[in-house]
Amino acid sequence: MTIKDIQEKKIKGEKITMLTAHDCPSASLIDEAGIDIILVGDSLANVALGLESTKDVGMEEMLHHAKAVRRGAKSAFIVGDMPYNSYQTDTQKAVDNARRFIEEAGCDAVKLEWFDQCLEVAEKIVQAGIPAMGHVGLTPQTAQEFKVQGKDADSAKAIITNAKALQGCGCFSIVLECMPAKIAQILTEELSIPTIGIGAGVHCDGQVLVTHDVLGLVSRFKPKFVKQYVNLNDSILAGLKQYRQEVVSGQFPDEQHSYTIHSDELEKLRSNIENVQ
């Protein structure tokens, strides 16, 4: 999967699929399922590292997990989510950190959320030859609270303006998070680059969700836009409890899960042990 492939999907009206991954096994499964884009998201903080906020995860953790994702994915396009403070404070630092995602972790692109100096940073990253995905609407790294964005004309216009500006800077696609479906539809029609929605309705060129939410792997706040396709949390817990019970009761390991030795060899061993003074 390449940027050209992703952008051609918009032209052809084919939906783009995107999910998060933070380790090799997950990336391999997502890749095998035929998902177009894997986002090494800063949701790593919440779903894998036990941190309270996405603001608490840094570059080293993100790179560590991005490398693991790269090992697992053979076909999917991999985007590294630039963590909080890795690109907002210094433009050159932002470019250097973006380059680390490409050169050290093997990502194909980086994603950065909208903030006041976003255009300057995005432009410098793109000029450095690093593909960049934008992100407008709800931006969790800087949001004061979780709420739908663009529900009035003025704020919706600001989102559209920002998205168009990111396209003008050279971003190859853009994430639209937590906004009315009609606003996302306008953006999708207005932009020539693909839009990837998360809580932005069906009219986006593609959709992204956190894989842990899709699979029911964590018990946490679930926004309205999250759809859980299976409940692995309950299945895994049931399996772990059964394992504990079988170990405690002596049911596991049974003969089927144990190795054997020929009776002649066992007798020889016992004789040798008996002869040892």
How would you characterize this protein structure?
Helix 2 packs across helix 4 (59-72) and helix 5 (91-103) crosses helix 6. The mean pLDDT is 95. An eight-stranded parallel barrel has the order 1-2-3-4-5-6-7-8, surrounded by seven helices. It folds into two domains: 3-230, TIM Barrel, CATH 3.20.20; 235-275, no CATH class. The protein has eleven helices and eight strands. It is elongated. With 277 residues, the protein is an alpha/beta fold.
Give the topology, please.
Blueprint lengths: L2 H10 L3 E5 L3 H9 L4 E4 L3 H4 L11 H14 L4 E5 L9 H13 L5 E3 L6 H10 L4 E6 L15 H17 L3 E5 L3 H10 L4 E4 L7 E4 L1 H4 L17 H18 L13 H13 L2
Parallel strand pairs: 1-2, 1-8, 2-3, 3-4, 4-5, 5-6, 6-7, 7-8
Helix pairs in contact: 2-4, 5-6, 7-8
Throw out a few tags for this protein.
single chain, 277 residues, alpha/beta, TIM Barrel, 2 domains, 11 helices
Give a concise summary.
The protein has helices spanning 3-12, 24-32, 44-47, 59-72, 91-103, 118-127, 153-169, 181-190, 211-214, 232-249, 263-275; strands at residues 16-20, 37-40, 77-81, 109-111, 132-137, 173-177, 195-198, 206-209. By secondary structure, the protein is of the alpha/beta class. Helix 2 (24-32) crosses helix 4 (59-72), helix 5 packs across helix 6 (118-127) and helix 7 runs parallel beside helix 8 (181-190).
